[in-house]
Amino acid sequence: MTIAEERAAAAAHGPTTAYTGINDRTQLNPIFARPGESTDLPVDRIPDNESLPETAYQIVHDESMLDGNARLNLATFVGTWMDDHAARLYAESADKNMIDKDEYPQTAAIETRCWKIVAGLWNAPDPEKAIGTSTVGSSEACMLGGLALKRRWQLARKAEGKPTDKPNLVLSSAVQVCWEKFCNYWDVEPRYVPITDEHKVLDGHELEKYVDENTIGVVAIMGVTYTGMYEPVAEISKALDRIQEQTGLDVKIHVDGASGGMIAPFLQPDLEWDFRVPRVVSISTSAHKYGLVYPGLGWVVWRTAGDLPADLVFDVTYLGGHMPTFALNFSRPGAQVLLQYYLFLRLGFDGYYRVQKASQDVALYLSGEIAKMPAFELWNDGSDIPVFAWQLKKGHTDKWNLYHLSERLRLKGWLIPAYPMPDDLTDLTVQRIVVRNGLSHNLAESLVVDIQEAVEYLDALESPMPTEGQVHSFTH
């Protein structure tokens, strides 16, 4: 084909791109092309012919370069860095299937070790009598915790000859979206307790308005997604104690410790939020958040085996083995479980403390510097989990808002979301920073400078910034 013919063919396909599926072709940089090899490949259908592995690698590598810099992504809670030894272990165990306990019995044994370690961190009365499992992430772990609450309630109602068709679950209006999914998927009425300026989290205030005989449980969050604040589990439990004294209703608590479940044991060991609170029957966490493991991995633990209804556990024969399973997923990676065990061995209690304390120190530094800026007012300071949010101070400006600041910071590579608060506070917009392992104090200092410069630029505007087409960005 002549150059002219090649150009004509390329023109017929339209512009080529190496970064998205906007167009229908993707093209390899000629410097990576091999003689006789096609460098113009379809995007949305499988190519007619195979490519060399080097070619396929280069195309995927080049396209993924246009993703954001994970170290500068302060929107997500999910871990983005592990050391070289973890990477080696990951590569060596990527082929392990967690469900295949007959083929990979040692991985299964390590999974059990891990949830028993976690049960101990959460002050289970006897970790040997607790029961737990790994999950793909905290969303699956929450689903299992919620299902156990619902099934316990159903069994108790049936034993009393009462109907089971109207279960409800009490939770904060600032709850993570996985709980909305749980209620939707499993036909449970969500009863949202609205957060307010006076009650920034679910704290037991007026809980009696939401609890009745159909309540399967209350969800308490250790690290609200919107702001990072802890919900006071002990206070919620006391409110439920009062409700039981007045009504006889014995309502249990599931603690969603997606982030705080791996922070509080190390940074706030005296805070009673876990199995030290008798009403807490189950706790879940995200290992790929402050458990410091690559996604996706979560843990859920029940106080005792009796707190997990037996009819939720399936006994299956698979690939020559015989084992119980109660996860929502079946085949799933086992590598992350090994990574969690590696970190438990590598860091120990003291190491986890120092890693989490370093993140908290950076969060407190950042929130302190932002609090000094006249434009802002803190919602919280990051002293619970290393996450904090702030709002634009009333009356500071009518020329820009936090969405504009978010866009301005994105020009420097920083991903810092702005979004409205949940029901009853939807007119309030906040920005949130999640400090994870890898955000050093030096990087934080650079961020402060970038925020100051962005605010100076926006404050100097002579007319208001346009607001058309603005969308909020929110990473759970």
Structure description:
The chain is an alpha/beta fold. It contains eleven helices and 15 strands. A seven-stranded mixed beta sheet has the order 3-9-8-7-6-4-5, sandwiched between helices. It has a four-stranded antiparallel beta sheet with strand order 12-13-15-14. Strands 1-2 form a two-stranded antiparallel ribbon. It is globular, with a radius of gyration of 25 Å. The relative contact order is 0.13.
Cα gyration radius (Å): 25 Å
What series of H and E elements makes up the topology?
A: HEEHHHEHEHEEHEHEEEEHEEHEEH
Beta content comes to 15-25%
Low-confidence stretches: 13-21
What is the CATH C level class of the largest domain, in words? Answer: Alpha Beta
Per DSSP E runs of 2 or more residues, the count of β-strands stands at: 15
Main sheet overview: 7 strands, mixed
How much helix, percentage-wise, in residues?
25-40%
CATH superfamily of the largest domain: Type I PLP-dependent aspartate aminotransferase-like (Major domain)
Structural class: alpha/beta
CATH architecture grouping of the largest domain: 3-Layer(aba) Sandwich
- Tally of discrete structural domains: 3
The tally of helices reads: 11
Mean pLDDT: 89
